[in-house]
Amino acid sequence: MQAASRESYKIAAERLDAYVRGAEPSAVASTADDILSVATLLRREPRLRRALSDPARSGADRAGLLGEMLRGRIGADALDLLASLASGRWSAPSELLEGTERLGVEALLASADKSGDLGEVEDELFRFGQVVSGQSALSNALSDPIAPAEQRAGLARELLAGKARPVTVRLVEVALGGFGGRSFIGALTRLVELAAERRDRQVAYVTVAAPLSDEEERRLGARLSEMYGREVSVKQTVNPEVLGGVSVRVGSDLYDGTVLRRLNETRNALAKS
């Protein structure tokens, strides 16, 4: 987002945080669903996106237009938060859509946080991404842009039935819609990171040839927390092809101590000699 859009989103996000503090988790989840349903509407209706982000209209006018359309169709709390978005300044209609979708996701994560489930939601999203990435047929079925969105969502709900919390399932549906213009797996990854951010944690993606023990994972997490000055959520991927050692990615930082990397470096050095 550009600066004006970021500021408009920040105001709405602060309003969301104030609302969440006094609301029940179920009410917050319902509000999130309302906001995400409006995000879906904005994705479908480019003319509406343009009207609600038109700089030639006042913020009050745009918020009023939104209210006329949605009053009675969504909850009052969702409408209030969406009016805050619509009354802001947006650098492009696409950024209003991005802000609406992000606000709905943050509301979902806040509902899980209030109910004490946010850590589990974070882990469930990561594990589902691992399952999908490990099965090309499943990945293709869920990522196929030609297949109807509801068909792909139905497949995801079937796979997650009895294995994941409702917030996780809803977030997977958001990822299937291409959250933030990303691929399905890219969207899942971003949602994992947003869940960690709400818990004031950094995500470390760790690749190993064989699973780390609980104690090894704990020690690695503690070491990374010291390095980055905040708690770190370790997400472990097992890939026998790395042969041994550990690869760790935190944001744009990559620490690759795998046997595979050392072999590749040796091979390249020999080829140049």
From TrEMBL:
Keyword Transport applies: yes
UniProt keyword Repressor present: no
Family annotation (Pfam families): OSCP
GO cellular component terms attached to this protein's record: plasma membrane; proton-transporting ATP synthase complex
Coiled-coil stretches: none
Compartments, record wording: Cell membrane; Membrane
Membrane topology note: Peripheral membrane protein
Keywords annotated in UniProt: ATP synthesis, Cell membrane, CF(1), Hydrogen ion transport, Ion transport, Membrane, Transport
GO molecular function, one term: proton-transporting ATP synthase activity, rotational mechanism
InterPro entries assigned to the protein according to its UniProt record, in alphabetical order: ATP_synth_OSCP/delta_N_sf, ATPase_OSCP/dsu
Protein family: Belongs to the ATPase delta chain family.
Function: This protein is part of the stalk that links CF(0) to CF(1). It either transmits conformational changes from CF(0) to CF(1) or is implicated in proton conduction. F(1)F(0) ATP synthase produces ATP from ADP in the presence of a proton or sodium gradient. F-type ATPases consist of two structural domains, F(1) containing the extramembraneous catalytic core and F(0) containing the membrane proton channel, linked together by a central stalk and a peripheral stalk. During catalysis, ATP synthesis in the catalytic domain of F(1) is coupled via a rotary mechanism of the central stalk subunits to proton translocation.
Record's protein name: ATP synthase subunit delta
Gene source species: Micromonospora globispora
